[in-house]
Specification:
There is one protein chain. By secondary structure, the chain is of the alpha/beta class. It is 38% helix and 16% strand. The protein has 2 domains: 156 residues, Response regulator (Rossmann fold), CATH 3.40.50; 309 residues, pyruvate-formate lyase- activating enzyme, CATH 3.80.30. It contains 18 helices and 18 strands. The chain has a 7-stranded mixed β-sheet, with helices on both faces. α11 links the parallel β12 and β13.
């Protein structure tokens, strides 16, 4: 079995999905090869060299994202992935199976775009070994849960079967060169859970990863960290949608790290929701080695929080800042601006409130990427033809499925929304600049030269915190 990583963004992000898949496939009796093209100056020769001596049963390609979700660039990553897939197709007759978090958001459309017949949405550790076992015996695998496959009339999608993550032991994490990703990407990566049950109108995580939250045991998470620590990887990012949902699981993870004395040996970063966030959790996170928290705040205006489907208030946003300052936790607020109902007044309210709360950094993202399967996509369709909607930016003609990037930017902000935001920020150094023209202040991680150079010099940690330290040391 061949696993392929076509993601070549820099700094490199370790494809933990392939580590997890390789572990599951080996447990099922398969030999696994990995073709990781992240660090390849030119993927074509590497692909050619592999297939000159190998004939795998099948090829699985993981697609981490469909685009960079950034309004200023609108980089359509699938275009680059398809080029690599075509190079693989030219050198093998083995079936190519797509999967990954980006693929699972819109699997049928991506299969059609790439001209392929097979994909797995959801958890590949369950579906892929079963599909390959059928292939190895020459049997039809079209009833495998989570399989997406071509038919005479289109594509059929089977319902996935989710794993009981609480009963799964720590994967070996030896298929991917995690040490190289640490050296060139600045951190290792760990999952503590999957799925999200929240109702944010724009978020694709429940679409691609499921709405039922599945929790790993604290013991297996700690064992996986210890495994990577044995390779001298001591900075980590937790890849959960939001670490503190549910809060009891987050507390249990922290206690396990503290009991194993890992909190003094590692530094880790995470995404978190502004609520629930308690004094007890803040204290536990600090003791467990947490070096920084990225809160997905979105807005500091209660009206906009409700419009975006968020279930916390501006008061709770303020409380996270108080607790982090009290515990000495470095933290940032991510803002998602320009959604339905956003006005210049609500924009001003958010920016002024965030300045008062004084997070260490603020990531203002202007424009909301619309993904199929989300409530925002349904709302926009109900408003009429896309090309007549004054709040849409990007490719609207012939893109009713929102396959190519389309962004919602409230027409109530007027034609100079970017200028309005810049004026409100007013040069405040805590805010990442939202222009693609200044790499050292750029909050987009897609081929960010400032980050690449800093990591090469020895900086480690979450990308936003590396950028913070670079600015403060300048």
């Amino acid at each position: 079995m061949l696993l392929v990583n076509p993601n070549r963004m820099k700094p490199g992000v370790a494809p933990i999905a392939l580590d997890y898949l390789a572990h599951a496939l080996r447990q099922a009796g398969f030999e696994v090869d990995l073709l990781d093209l992240c660090f390849s100056p030119d993927p074509a020769p590497e692909i050619e060299r592999y297939f000159a001596t190998a004939a795998p049963l099948a090829v699985a390609v993981t697609l981490r994202n469909s685009d960079d979700c950034w309004f200023a660039s609108q980089d359509f990553c699938l275009r680059h992935y398809r080029e690599i897939i075509e190079q693989v197709q030219a050198r093998t007759d083995a079936p190519i199976i797509l999967g990954g978090s980006g693929f699972s958001v819109m699997p049928e459309a991506i299969l059609a775009y790439c001209g392929l017949e097979l994909g797995v949405w959801g958890e590949g550790e369950y579906a892929l070994p079963r599909l390959l076992s059928r292939m190895a015996r020459g049997r039809d695998g079209h009833d495998v849960p989570g399989l997406v496959y071509a038919t005479a009339t289109g594509y059929q999608r089977n319902q996935p079967r989710y794993l009981d993550l609480s009963r799964i032991s720590a994967p070996r994490r030896d298929a991917v060169d995690n040490r190289r990703y640490f050296e060139e990407g600045g951190m290792g990566a760990i999952e503590t859970k999957r799925g999200c049950s929240k109702g944010c109108i724009y978020c694709a995580d429940p679409v691609g990863k499921g709405r039922r939250v599945r929790l790993r045991s604290p013991q297996s998470v700690a064992e996986e960290i210890e495994m990577l620590l044995g390779a001298d990887i001591d900075h980590f990012h937790l890849c959960d949608s939001e670490f503190n949902l549910p809060i009891t699981h987050a507390e249990a993870i922290c206690r396990e790290l503290v009991e194993r004395r890992l909190g003094v040996r590692i530094k880790w970063y995470t995404y978190a929701s502004p609520a629930p966030f308690t004094p007890g959790l803040a204290s536990l996170m600090r003791k467990a080695g947490c070096a920084g928290i990225n809160f997905g705040v979105d807005s500091a205006c209660d009206r906009m929080l409700r419009a975006l489907g968020r279930d916390y208030t501006n008061e709770e946003v303020a409380r996270t800042a108080q607790l982090c300052h009290r515990e000495g936790l470095v933290f940032m607020y991510d803002l998602l601006l320009g959604g339905p109902g956003e006005t210049r007044e609500s924009l001003r309210e958010t920016i002024e409130a965030v300045k008062r709360l004084s997070p260490h950094r603020v990531g203002p993202s202007l424009g909301v990427r619309i993904f199929p399967g989300t409530r925002l996509a349904a709302m926009v369709r109900d408003e009429g033809p896309l090309d007549q909607n004054p709040s849409l930016r990007g490719t609207t003609a012939g893109n009713e499925a929102f396959f190519v990037p389309v962004f919602y930017l409230s027409a109530e902000l007027g034609p100079e929304a970017q200028g309005c935001l810049a004026e409100l920020i007013g040069g405040d150094e805590r805010f990442f600049f939202t222009s693609r023209d200044s790499a050292d202040k750029n909050y987009n991680y897609n081929d960010n030269s400032a980050l690449v150079n800093a990591i090469r010099k020895g900086y480690r940690g979450a990308f936003w915190d590396i950028l913070r330290r670079l600015a403060e040391e300048a």
